[in-house]
Amino acid sequence: MLLASQAMTAGTIASNFNTARPTVSKHLAILTECELLEQQQNGREIYYHLNPNKMKEIADFIEPFRKLWDDRFNKLEDIMKAYKPKK
Amino acid sequence: MELKTKIHAEDGKQELTITREFELPVELLFRAYEDADIVAQWMNTKVVQLENRKYGAWQFDTSDDKGNIVFTASGVYHEFIPNQKITRTFEMGNAPFDVQLEFLEFEALDEAHSKLTMQIVYRSGALRDQMLKLPFKQGLNMAHNRLQEIVNKLK
C-alpha cells in the first residue's frame, strides 16, 4: 500500500513498520522475485516500486480459469495435429 | 497477440461461454471428444466411462502422482451429434457444487480450421463465480507454496 503512492527505499519502507529491517528486506526480496515489485537503482540507493501489470494479473481472477482451458486446448490441438487415424 | 481461448462471463449472469479456434478440421476436433484414449491425454485424466450417445454416461477420475484420486467428474449426455454438438451435464464428485449444464458446439471454419463454443450454465451467478475462482485459488495456493519454499531458503 505504501508503494502505491511512490517508489521507496528498503530503509524508508522498514521505518513504517515495527519489524526488524532484515525481515522487511526478506519480504521485499520475495515480492521482487514474484515480480510484484521492481527495483530501480538510483545512485547508491535501490528504490522499490509496484509492478502494476503483475498486480493486474493477480486481480484478474478469470485469467487462471482461462489459462486452464487454454492449456488443455493447446494440448488437444498438439495431440490432434500429430494424430494418425487407426486403420 | 490475440488470445486463442476466450472467456465471456457477464457480471451477474449464471452462465459463461468459452470459445476457441483450432488449427484442426472439425472432424479431428470432435474426435478429441469421442475417443477415450485421446480425452485421457489432453484432459490429463483417467476416462472411466464415455458412452457417446443420448443418455450415455461419462466419468473422469484424476489422480495425483501417488495414485490417489484427487478429482472426479461425471455426467450424462443429452445430445451427441458428431462434428456438431454435445449437450451434457457435469458434476464434480465430493464437492458441494450443484450440477452444471454444458452446450458444446463444433463448427468448421474451413477445411483445416474449426471453432468450439462451450456454454456452461450454473445453478446461480454466485456458483458460477465460485467455479471461476477455483483455478485462481489453486494458483494462489501454488504461489503461496512457492513463497514458503523461498522463505525457507532465506532462513
Can you walk me through this structure?
The complex is a heterodimer of chains A (87) and B (155). Chain A has 87 residues and is α+β, with helices and mostly antiparallel strands. Helices cover 57% and strands 16% of the residues of chain A. Chain A has a three-stranded antiparallel sheet with strand order 1-3-2. In chain A, a hairpin with a 2-residue loop joins strand 2 (37-42) and strand 3 (45-50). With 155 residues, chain B is α+β, with helices and mostly antiparallel strands. In chain B, strand 4 and strand 5 (69-81) form a beta hairpin. The mean pLDDT of chain B is 91.
Largest interface: A-B, 25 and 34 residues
Tally of contiguous helical segments of chain B: 3
What separation lies between the terminal Cα atoms of chain B?
Answer: 41 Å
Main pleated sheet of chain B = 8 strands, antiparallel
Rg on CA atoms of chain A, Å:
21 Å
The spatial strand order of the largest sheet of chain B comes to 1-2-8-7-6-5-4-3
Q: What labels describe this entry?
A:
heterodimer, A: 87 residues, alpha+beta, 3-stranded antiparallel β-sheet, 5 helices, 3 strands, B: 155 residues, 8-stranded antiparallel β-sheet, 3 helices, 40% strand, globular
Task: Please outline the helices and strands.
The complex is a heterodimer of chains A (87) and B (155).
Chain A: H1 2-5, E1 8-9, H2 10-14, H3 21-33, E2 37-42, E3 45-50, H4 52-59, H5 62-81
Antiparallel strand pairs in A: 1-3, 2-3
Chain B: E1 5-8, E2 15-22, H1 26-34, H2 36-43, E3 46-50, E4 57-63, E5 69-81, E6 85-92, E7 100-108, E8 114-121, H3 125-154
Antiparallel strand pairs in B: 1-2, 2-8, 3-4, 4-5, 5-6, 6-7, 7-8
Helix pairs in contact in B: 1-2
